[in-house]
Specification:
Layout: H1 2-5, E1 17-19, E2 34-37, E3 42-45, H2 47-58, E4 64-66, E5 75-79, E6 85-91, E7 97-103, E8 106-113, E9 117-123
Parallel strand pairs: 1-2
Antiparallel strand pairs: 2-3, 4-5, 5-6, 6-9, 7-8
């Protein structure tokens, strides 16, 4: 969120996959979306992976960040090139939260945002 609000137009994942040590080839600790546990021979998709999944699937190339208002703090809103709106919300708390989403005067019903989750809402173009 802070990068987009500061004017970033994109974000690159420097280390997409790391082993369980989290060390890059340069030897410094990183967080990566995918961790390969070489001892257990497992692939772990981290919350970072799921966040990028929300952004890369629903927000299209050429989309623009737009202002969003309301009491919910962890949110970003974008308008895709076709005019459709995309809102990504994070719920960092340990509790489910109900809320109503309003896009251009059209209100959703009450939506329950699960605890510790990312949620994406898409409104079709006009």
């Amino acid at each position: 969120m802070k990068w987009f609000h500061a004017g970033a137009g994109s974000n690159m994942i420097w280390n997409l996959v790391l082993d369980e040590t989290g060390l890059s080839t340069g030897g410094w600790a990183q967080c990566s979306p995918v961790v390969v546990d070489t001892k257990k021979r497992e692939i772990i998709r981290t919350p970072y992976f799921h966040l990028y999944q929300h952004f890369s699937h629903f927000i299209e190339p050429g989309a623009h960040l737009v202002a969003s208002t309301g009491a919910w703090g962890d949110k970003l809103a974008f308008v895709n090139p076709n005019g459709g709106a995309v809102i990504v919300l994070a719920n960092r708390s340990g509790q489910e939260h109900p809320l109503t989403i309003n896009i251009d005067g059209k209100r959703s019903g009450i939506v329950k945002i699960p605890a510790r989750s990312f949620n994406t809402f898409v409104a079709a173009s006009k």
